[in-house]
Write a structure and sequence with these properties.
The complex is a heterodimer of chains A (301) and B (540). By secondary structure, chain A is of the alpha/beta class. Helices cover 39% and strands 20% of the residues of chain A. Chain A has 10 helices and 10 strands. Chain B contains 19 helices and 2 strands. Chain B has 3 domains: 63 residues; 129 residues; 222 residues, MetI-like (MetI-like fold, Orthogonal Bundle). The chains are: A alpha/beta (301), B mainly alpha (540). Chain A: It is found in: Cell membrane.
Chain lengths: 301, 540
Amino acid sequence: MKTQSKFVEISHLVKEYPNPYGDDFRVIEDFNLNIKKGEFISLIGHSGCGKSTVLTMLAGLNEISDGGIIVGDKEIDGPGPDRSVVFQAPCLMPWMSAYGNVMLGVKNIYPHATKAQQKQIVEHALSVVGLADSMKKYPSEMSGGMQQRVGIARAIALQPKVLLLDEPFGRLDSLTRMELQDVIVDIIAKEQLTAMIVTHDVDEAVFMADRCVMMSNGPKASVGEILEIDFDRPRDREKIFKDSQFFAYREHLLAFLEQRSHIKDKARIFSDKSTLGFMSEQELHDFQVKLGVPPQPAQGH
Amino acid sequence: MKILSSIKYPLLKAIDISGLTFLSPVVRLCYGEEPSVQLKKIGQWIIIPVAAMLLFIFAWNAGSGLIKTKAGTLPTPGETADALGSINTFADREDLKKEAYNLTGEERLAALAVAEAQLASITPKVQETTDAVAQAKSEHEKSIAVVVEPLEKNYDELKEKFSQAQDKRKQELESVSETLVIGDKASYTKFLDLVKANESQTDAEKTELSSLKAAISDARNDKSKKVALALSMQTKVAEEKQFLEKQIEQLTKRNRSIMVESAETNISTTTEELYQLTGADAYKKARSIAKDESRLEKTIESKYAQPATLWYQVRRSILCVFTGFIIGAGIAIPIGILCGLNSTFMAAMTPFIAIFKPVSPIVWLPIALIIVGGFIPDPENNAVIQWLWKAPLIDIYKINPAFIASAITVALCSLWATLANTALGVASIDKDHMNVARVLKLGFWSRLFKIVIPSALPLIFAGLRISLGVGWMVLIAAELLSSSEGIGKFVWDQFNNGASDSFAKMMVVVFVVGFVGLILDRIMIVFQRLVSFEGSKAAI
């Protein structure tokens, strides 16, 4: 039996895509992270750095090139209901009602439960996300926020070991976003779920998580820095947003992100021959000038 | 008022779903919603199309006289409407005859009295119309003679004059030929020129004569509208008289109850006679009684042998197109789903789809006829066909091998649109939906029925809609070739019939086929909209 501190174990994770003009394109390299049971991780970084790639690999939707992921004693192999995902788009079946969408998974995960039990699970999940009165509605009759609530209900109804949130509020307005953040925070506190959220909203990352994982820029992204967020659960938005510690965390994250977006990083990317290997030396130089990247002396790799 | 305002939006929604969107400004106008906007829309979507139709009918009316062929002139809209009327009259009369055949007792006698009164009133009209025709003809002949006689006189004079002139020229040339000297080439050339000039002169005279002759024959053939009218009146009256006589026959000696009655009396008298006989005579009598009895049974069960009316043929064609359509969909949807799910299967099917898709119904039909004929050599002794002839609702359509072959042809020609659209719908399923299915670990069947098919359904129905349209077009051609009772056969019969209104009846069929096709398309649109969801690819 593994210790509680290693409920999810991501070790030496690599993701590479074939590159017809050179070596394989490594998006993620040597990504290591252990997640405790009941812990909430937020994954933050610049867009395109591979946050979502890590999450989809953990979900099993994206193939792992190298390294491994262990969830509660078992190495993962493909997707499964033990790691349910809330996608950026709600991804509801438009031909099913809210109830039908949640039932779709429940029926499959609890095939031996009686009809009444299945119904109870679905109704519970929907009422937890505040849709007790809208179960019979179809996606076309619901707002984006309500649709995403159904998406969350569908994920938690499976009673997963790990709940994965892939920029779940990216397409919502800020008011709805806050409402749904509270919904998730309440559920996590109540059901003691282990969870990971991918976001590029710093406030969201600090408010929701126990630990913020800051990713270095891609390609070859990995864990840059980890920030422990020391707030009590259940979390109270008003209290936290007035806490000076909150701003300290926030500043820390912003400093990290700003530093990463510094021009030196750009220079590193655009002088890296493995990514731009299809260009000649002269072309590369011209390209860098065009982008305003100070030309660097040629470097080996 | 409350009810009125509460049905406004359901009504508009129904109009939208049925695709009759041109009605929605009318409804909105009735509710007083932005009258100027609605009037503008009504102008655009109702008044302009109607005006265009009227313009078309006007142009048709004006242009139809210009298209003259040996078989007749292109019918005008009026003649086409008349042809529709005569098609309807025929259908109504056939229904009356059928009714007459089945009537019994008091009702039969009442109907008989009515028919006889009608016949009595129409009989004098027959003579009247015949006289009218004779009069119109003689008048017309007189008016023709006035034109033709001077022309003929002119022709005879010219002919005489030309032949004399020709003889004279011939003699002159012959005398010139006597003066020719061998070796004097110049004189020969001159002579040759003279002969050539003579030939062209003769040709010109011939042309003049023949054009005059054509003018005479045109004048002779000039059709009088009066005569045509008198003839059509005569035909109408004669047809009505014939119908009434036939109806009276169906009410009397060809009436089923009468035939049954007389057969029963006959049997009872022969039975009485049988009781008086022995030996070979008795055997003979008994046999004839047995025969009569079996004949009586058949008479009791018999139905009036109604000839096919256009409306019966339309209904049979619709039944046939749906039979073919369902066969086609039954083949296309499963194969389309497999193609969409599995690219290997798709690769295997591609050559078949590519080769069979462009094949014409004209090619499929004979093949289908041979194959169906091979399975059903004798419909009278085939259990399935016999069952179909007795099945409720479809028994009157007498489903035969030609019907089945036509339906198979429809299926083979129409399934491709459904197949392609189904494959596309299944293959282009939203990747997010598939990811959800993977996370939920749905099995193959629940993935298929809960996600793949519902999401492909709008495209499948778009394909079915195209298929039904193609099938309807193909069916008319198939029926024409296979002589399967239907609209196509009606056209073929009219083509071979060559009656004065055959051409106009074919024009009626153009509109009937178009109208039925439109209705079928509308039905499919309604289905397509019912299965569409927001954001679905085929939603219109």
